[in-house]
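Purpose: get a first structural picture of the assembly so the mutagenesis plan has something to point at.
Setup: two entries, given in the order below. No constraints added.
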Amino acid sequence: GQQLNQSPQSMFIQEGEDVSMNCTSSSIFNTWLWYKQDPGEGPVLLIALYKAGELTSNGRLTAQFGITRKDSFLNISASIPSDVGIYFCAGQYSGGGADGLTFGKGTHLIIQP
Amino acid sequence: DGGITQSPKYLFRKEGQNVTLSCEQNLNHDAMYWYRQDPGQGLRLIYYSQIVNDFQKGDIAEGYSVSREKKESFPLTVTSAQKNPTAFYLCASSIKRRLTNEKLFFGSGTQLSVL
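Result (structure tokens, whole complex):
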């Protein structure tokens, strides 16, 4: 099956710092999705990417679909306390539909006061 | 408000007992999914359904069963055959079946624990 490697596994940062995380795949994907999950809740979709090289922003969040189609990046600028949570990437291969989504293991973001 | 409702939020299972997790959506989505989440792990697909009265096994279907009698509802039963059921269970839906570039929308989850 598809393999997704998400890194880092966890991040300890100061409020106001910028954050970067990424996902790499052993296979080509044609869609990348980024989700955020708060403790005890379901993941919420942040950004969807559909085209190699695409750069999309959602407020302080920016995500990019890698040119090789095997990776994606998420950046958060000027982090605030409510950014705390687990961020998941998900990749979808061609023709796979939503049942063809593969999830990374998540990046746990912790903000120190 | 449109959304996906999972219940209960917390559920306890005794040895040898079957338990059923509820998932209802009023988004008029065709496809529905069940995922299992273990600490520090990604989401793993248990079952999915693309249309009423039809469903398919995901990557870890053993010990679980589902039904899809109505478009809005996709209950998951954790059977006694599932020897390690403690996990956070997430239900999700998407607009259309088998369409590339689909987005998943999730419910708020059910935490299942074994007594």
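Chain A touches chain B through 31 residues (CB under 8 Å).
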